[in-house]
Amino acid sequence: MYSIKINVKRTSWVKGLAGLSLAMLLATTIGCNDKKKEDTKEETSTTDAMSVKENNSTVAEYVTFVSNDKNKMELDHAYTNEALLKLTSAVDAMAGEVDYDIKADLEKARESANKITENPFETSHADEIRKAAEILSGSLQNIQIAKYPGLSSEAAQVKSSAMAIDPKILTLDQKDAVKGFFAKSADLLEKMN
To answer: How many separate domains does the chain show?
Structure first.
């Protein structure tokens, strides 16, 4: 019988060691899962702002306007004026979403947009469009830097399309450049929105 008691004691010791090992394994697994959950929460809170969609209706209105009215540029510049004003409002709306103050710049862009409808035979419309485009592209680029670091290429394309508008050439002779600026701006805003 004595040998049986030793076996029972050994079995109890082995069972205790196995139970302790199992408890440590379980605790480690639970601890790792908690760490993964914390890491996931941290990653979620520091996710790039591009994954957060603003869904701003003013931005959507501009994007829709530019998408639907590609062949409307005429001597009176009504389309260009409206596109610039809608773009200005869209940029203002996005700036509001990221708490970026650009009111003074946007007022200058509105002034330039309104000047192009005053006299349809004026030859300086391209200059005013270029001024507005430079202001708006610079504002978009600043918003991109502040909140949308993954859209730097798109912001650079907006800036270069603004610079492609030649102030010395009549606007109607460079419709593609002006429409290209509107399209690139719409693309960037749509990705931000």
So the answer is: 2
